[in-house]
Each structure stands twice: as structure tokens, then as C-alpha cells.
Amino acid sequence: MLLPGSLGTARDGGVFFLHGGDEYRKSAAARELVERYADPATADFNVDRIEGSNTTVERLASVIATPPMMAPWRVVYVKEAEALAASPRARQVVLDAAGGPPEGLVLILQATIPPRSRAKFYKDLAKIATAVEFKSVSADEAPGWLVSWAGEELGVTVEIEAARALAGAAGTELGVLTQEVRKLAEMVGEGAVVDVDAVRKGGVRLPRQDRWAWFDLVGSRRIPDALRSLPVLLEQGESVVRLVVGLSTQLLRIGVAIEGGMPAVRPVLPPHQRFLARRVVGQARRWTRAELADAVRGLRRLDRLLKASAIPGEVLMEEWLLGLTVRGRERSA
């Protein structure tokens, strides 16, 4: 895994505060930091792994204050560091270490901050430690992230359609998805591409229709196909509310492409989705500014009706799609 930002360039030890909702990337970053600083020959003496919910302030203070033995660094890796926030003494030990780390100390604090927490401890720690937030990767971002991760971490090419199929079948938990890709990479062999057929041969039960391919149907104005596929998506457990969110993103990206083409699209895509820019620009050629504006207004109306009307969401979505069909016929006439 390629460490982000300040973690990737840090070489001087000190205190690292890793937090956020993505447990996979957070844990992977912590492990990589341990490997970077720990001397394998002296790891038994210089690496301490602690669970914040199962330690005492005395032990925490002791391991932090202990200098490295026969190595440049002493690594203290604390999981569940959010448990330390409940103790004023533990908080002070951590903040003192972050404010003036003992020579040779690498303290890695891995935490999941409780939702809506306003604890001053976390804000203070983020200011004086090397802090990185690992935000949860959304369902719509997971396939693109997986494609980028496979290339960077494994040197394996995973086609976006295969990544989407995997996410549709296995969910968007990154730990599960990366395990599946590792298995598929071994199956196809060195230099081969992981495509949808490989995913199918790997024993993954694919959905009949994945949500991302459906967004592409709408983006490409293949509205009859999108109408036929909508019941399939909903039968698989998809919700109209989530589809509206995904369509909003799709249409806004198309709008950017209409206005500025490829140079405008790439910067607005997350780094792990920039390879999709060409696809977005291709879809933009199928829309006029007026048509896209009408579609966005209609989607906003659909969203309001979902919240205030008793009309089934599927009916509202079908109405919106049929409206796109009518406008497309008017343009062709």
C-alpha cells in the first residue's frame, strides 16, 4: 500500500495518529509504519503492540518512556486508541508524547473516533501529531479504488467492469475486495488481466445487473436498456434513493465534461477514478446543455417526491427515465 501524504514522507519518527472509518486502509498504514521503523533483528525488544481498551496508564507511560535497545527506533503500536480518551491521565501521557516525543520513539495511535464526538483530545492530538484521516470509501468509489490498488500494490490490471462486478457481488468492504483480487490475480497468472470472465470463473456469483453499469446506461442515454434493468436492480436490494445519489454524481460529471472536456473532468474525479475521464467525456457527447439541465431538474424533483410523496420510488424513477426518452425523441425529430 502506498502511504498517503505526510505518512509517505515521514522519516523522523514521532507520533502518528491514524483515524477514520476505513478500517482496512487504516490498519494497512499502521502495519506499514511498523515495518518501516522496526528493526527485524531487535523487534522482540523494540516493538510493543497494545490495545487501548486493555492497558493501564502506567504501562502506556512505561513503554513510551523506554528507549530503543540496539536499534534506532522503538515502535509502540496502539490499536483502539479511542479508549484512552476516557482517562485524563492517559490523554495527558499521549499529548505529552506527541508534543515532545522521546528520542527514538515511534508511537502509532490507531483510533475510530465516536460519531459526533467533540472531544478536545482528538483535535489537540491531530494538531501536534502526524495525523491522517482514512475516510470510508463510498460504494461508488470502491471499484475505482480497487482498480488503482491492484495496479499499485500487486502490479495487476483489473478492468473497471470486473471491479464493479466484484463490488456488486461481495460488497464494498475493502478488506474483502482486496482478498478476492489477490485470489483472482493468482488464478489468471502473471501478466494476465482480471476481467469479468475471470471474476466469473473465480466462483464469484455476479449480480444480474450492477449499479455502475446501470449508471453508464443512463449516461450513454441507453434509456430503454436502463428501464428494462431497473426492476432487476431493485430486486437485488438496490434502493431508488441510492440510485438518485449515484445519478446525481454521474450527471454532474457529464455537465463538467460538456463545459470543459477532458481537462475539466480529470481534476474533479477522485485520484483513483481519473481513468474514467474518457468514458465520462464520451457520454457527454450524447447530451446538450439544455437536456442535461432538464435531467438534473427532474432528478431534483424526483428526490423531493421520494421524501414527500406516497408514490412508489420505482414509479417515480421510471417516470424520470421516460422523460429522458421523450426529450431524446424530440431532439431527433
Write the SSE topology.
Layout: H1 5-9, E1 14-19, H2 23-37, H3 43-46, E2 47-51, H4 57-65, E3 74-79, H5 88-99, E4 105-111, H6 120-128, E5 130-133, H7 142-154, H8 160-170, H9 174-188, H10 196-201, H11 211-219, H12 223-235, H13 240-268, H14 277-284, H15 289-308, H16 313-332
Helix pairs in contact: 4-5, 5-6, 7-8, 7-9, 11-12, 11-13, 12-16, 13-14, 13-15, 15-16
How would you sum up this structure, described in words?
The chain has 333 residues and is α/β, with parallel strands linked by helices. The chain has helices at 5-9, 23-37, 43-46, 57-65, 88-99, 120-128, 142-154, 160-170, 174-188, 196-201, 211-219, 223-235, 240-268, 277-284, 289-308, 313-332; strands at 14-19, 47-51, 74-79, 105-111, 130-133. The chain contains 16 helices and five strands. The protein has a five-stranded parallel β-sheet, with helices on both faces. The N and C termini lie far apart (53 Å).
In short:
The protein has 333 residues and is α/β, with parallel strands linked by helices.
Task: Please identify the structural class as seen in this structure.
Answer: alpha/beta
Q: Care to count the β-strands?
A: 5
How many whole angstroms does the radius of gyration measure? 25 Å
Low-confidence stretches: none
Q: Largest sheet, order of strands side by side?
A: 2-3-4-1-5
Secondary-structure element pattern, one letter each: HEHHEHEHEHEHHHHHHHHHH
How does the overall form come out from the CA principal axes?
elongated
Count of helical regions: 16
Question: Cα distance, first to last residue?
Answer: 53 Å
Mean pLDDT: 90
* Helix content, binned percent: 55-70%
Let me know the largest β-sheet: 5 strands, parallel
